[in-house]
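So, could you explain this one?
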Amino acid sequence: MTTGEVIRRIRKSLGMTQTELGAILGYTQPAISQLEHGGAAVHDVRVLRRVARALQVPLAILVVDSDEEADVKRRQFFKATALGAGAAAPFAGAPPSFGAGSAGTSASVKVGAGDVTAIKATIQQIRELDWVVGGDRLCQVAAGQVRAIEQLLDVGTYSDDVGRDLTSAAADMMTAAGWIYFDAGRSDESRQYYARAAQAGNASGDGFAVAQALLNASTLATTGAISYGASARPREGIRLAEAAQSTVLRQGGPKLRALAALREGVAQGAVGDKSAVAAATSRAHRAYESSRGHDPDWAYLPEVELNALTGIAYMAVGDHRTAHIHLQAAIDSQVGGPFQAHTTVRLAQNHLKAGEVAAGCALLSRNFEDIHDVASTRLHTIVSGIATDVRPHAKVPEVREFLGQVAEAV
């Protein structure tokens, strides 16, 4: 995506009109329109800084080409704090012990509960941005945030309670970074972030943070069995999901218990266990309707995602009729953005696996522009894999149209 397209997507995701954004910036509506369509101002970093502040996003999300790009990528973007300047080396072994910051050094910074709250707000903001622009544009920002939190752990001074919360936040940010790198098709970095997140969660005594890292690692291990361009280790995915549930089932609330069951269900589908998929998805939907337990802030599972993950589990195990029902229900919710694009591609993939080549390609063709706009290497790898699979059917009109769109987009 161009910088202008990113600005437009984020503005619309906030429910803001061009006129409203212009009023905040002191620009006219036509000026905002020109900005979103690649006008000269889109290359002015000073303008982009103002736009980033108005949209409450990191500047690195907006910058595409600039003499300052390298410097921008090194900045640490905290929404409400100036802490974290500079970059720290990754953890070597366990994270530093609580309260053990370098009080006697000039780099020392006092860290309080308010700073941890600001960090958590930034983590949530990055997760929300992934739903708007896709993971490819967020890797540098997420990596910078991890380094910034590590810097605070290394040189900050803080109480034991703040240290525990800060280490827990580090685990949360590492898992968010892992997902973004996964979405960007960078599996090795993703796996490393998840391992470090589990380590930090253990160090802080945050079982939920450990469970989150394990569940995401389960998805990473399983994805190659239902996608393209990734190694497949579905039995490892099952083990990781089951390990996460030891914490989730004791303490987790409806969304977290449902999410854990769905992750297991997808992994079970990848190994072809139909009864295990039915049991896991049934357990997920029962948990979702319950009120027992507590959900951490990151346990975001709207009904549309519940349906999508259920559909993916059934697609993996070959029950294409049930998969279609759930994937179509998710698409009908009209969430838009990367999630809508990913789910549409999954439904098309389900058509193809069911032998409905024309229907799958027709669906991709109708939504090709929206799919192509998403900055997700993971998504585009799936689309490229589908194109390879359907090429032998190029005489079918729907297939020919889809392949033509793919060729033009290269």
The chain has four domains: 1-67, 76-204, 206-305, 336-410. The two ends are 14 Å apart (CA to CA). The beta strands are 109-110, 156-157.
